Amino acid sequence: MPSLPDGTPIPALGQGTWHMGEKGAARKAEADALRLGLDLGMTLIDTAEMYAEGGAEEVVGEAIAGRRAEVFLVSKVYPHNASRRGAVAACERSLKRMKVETIDLYLLHWRGSVPLAETVEAFEALRAAGKIRRWGVSNCDVDDLEELGPALADCATDQVLYSLEHRGVEFDLLPFCAARRMPVMAYSPIGQGGKLLRHRALARVAARQGATPAQVALAWTLRDATIVSIPKASDPAHVRQNAAARELALTAEDLATLDAAFAPPTRKRGLAML
Ligand SMILES: NC(=O)c1ccc[n+]([C@@H]2O[C@H](COP(=O)([O-])OP(=O)(O)OC[C@H]3O[C@@H](n4cnc5c(N)ncnc54)[C@H](OP(=O)(O)O)[C@@H]3O)[C@@H](O)[C@H]2O)c1
């Protein structure tokens, strides 16, 4: 189980929420899917003020009503709201939508024009006020993390695009974070349910394992104990499959098949993001 730099253990497998809350008619089913995920132990929920412009946070609020203590709640502030006053106001709106007193981990969604140091100041004020327990960043590369300076010691995570299709962070970002005992959150770990899941190498490993391609893609992210993987699933069958991916132990042969099809990086590349 991964741990935060402050020693708090967090689940390796959580649940994403991008695109939830976009259609009123689907909200109940989405909240049900998140609750099913909680029942199955996927108790870290990742959301953002951006998703459905607050709609996803409302779905999360519905899903966790009466179960707040079970959940490790992650949300994110828009870069254009990440100023000293803007971040505080945005966080208060998020708390209200989710009907909670505090957010366990609050992230800068990506870097914008507000200086990082100012956002950190706002995050520290929110932490002192008990509105968030910790803060972190998203879509930040090694040079961005270095720019945090001494505040890097208080940064709880970096949430980045990481999947078989996007392995660039293995070159330097993952080792950089591991050296600081900072877990990395892998977003879009199953390639948004797109062409990754139709790849022949994934199908071959899935057949060998008696699993689905999505489960193999997820198990691959979870092979590294410092990674927290946050697939999004509104379909209950997907939720069940994803939860079961924790039981999948990829063999050396499986990993070699996947490495041959999705080569690990051999040089620095710019950080990929969605
Ligand atoms: N920080 C950032 O900038 C950033 C960017 C992107 C994403 N994220 C976070 O990361 C989360 C995950 O990323 P994502 O939503 O982009 O993509 P993802 O989790 O890789 O893929 C989600 C898609 O895959 C489908 N799916 C889920 N489980 C499946 C399974 N077992 N078999 C087949 N298909 C399955 C889902 O369908 P159903 O919904 O129909 O089940 C959905 O269409 C987001 O929801 C969000 O919380 C963060």
- What is the CATH T-level topology of the domain at 24-194 and 226-239? TIM Barrel
CATH architecture of the domain at 24-194 and 226-239: Alpha-Beta Barrel
Coarse morphology = globular
User: Mind summarizing the main beta sheet?
Assistant: 7 strands, parallel
Please give the count of helices: 10
Helix-strand pattern, N to C?
HEHEHEHEHEHEHHEHH
Radius of gyration of CA atoms, rounded to a whole number: 18 Å
Low-confidence stretches: none
- How confident is the prediction overall: mean pLDDT? 97
Helix content: 25-40%
Any idea what the CATH superfamily of the domain at 24-194 and 226-239 is called? Answer: NADP-dependent oxidoreductase domain
Strand order of the largest sheet: 1-2-3-4-5-6-7
- How many strand segments? 7
Question: What is the CATH level 1 assignment of the domain at 24-194 and 226-239?
Answer: Alpha Beta
Strand content: 5-15%
How far is it from the N-terminal to the C-terminal residue, by CA?
A: 27 Å
Small molecules in complex: NADP nicotinamide-adenine-dinucleotide phosphate
Structural class: alpha/beta
